[in-house]
Design goal:
With 137 residues, the protein is mainly alpha-helical. It has one domain. The chain has seven helices and no strands. The chain is elongated and about 50 Å long. It starts with a helix and ends in a 6-residue tail after the last helix. The relative contact order is 0.16.
Length: 137
């Protein structure tokens, strides 16, 4: 039973990376499409602690667009997973009234991101390819 499950580890990690990256990347693209609305949301709806709304909007959007690309490639995979975890937690904390279904989604994404941060992006990742010893001769 162990060998077949081990064979599924790499594709499972890739699917997890693709799933959670898509969620955050699409959210980032939505923010970029209408920057004025994004700024208004950060001023009125999202109350990010310690940051001015414009800075929070810029940082959140950059994180949602850049980190998923790294996660999909598995390039700095653990860093990207931790970074998206921060974005995820800040999103939950900055909304004063979050619907139970939305909170459940954020929890699910958090679990996937925690697993990727703890166990790495898998062997189908740039990180793993670079870590393998090269047999040049």
């Amino acid at each position: 039973m162990e060998r077949p499950l081990d064979a599924l580890r790499a594709p499972a990690c890739l699917l997890a990376r693709l799933y959670v990256a898509q969620v955050f990347f699409l959210s980032g693209l939505t923010k970029l499409r209408d920057w004025d609305t994004t700024l208004a949301l950060f001023m009125d709806e999202y109350h990010v602690p310690l940051l001015p709304p414009a800075v929070a909007a810029w940082m959140g959007t950059c994180g949602e667009v850049g980190l998923p690309v790294l996660l999909v490639l598995g390039l700095g995979g653990r860093f990207a997973a931790v970074g998206l975890s921060v974005v995820n937690v800040v999103a939950v904390l900055s909304l004063s009234d979050i619907a139970p279904a939305a909170l459940q989604q954020h929890i699910s994404w958090g679990i996937v991101l925690a697993a990727l941060a703890l166990f790495g992006p898998g062997s189908w990742a740039v990180d793993s390819a670079w870590a393998r010893p090269k047999n040049w001769f």
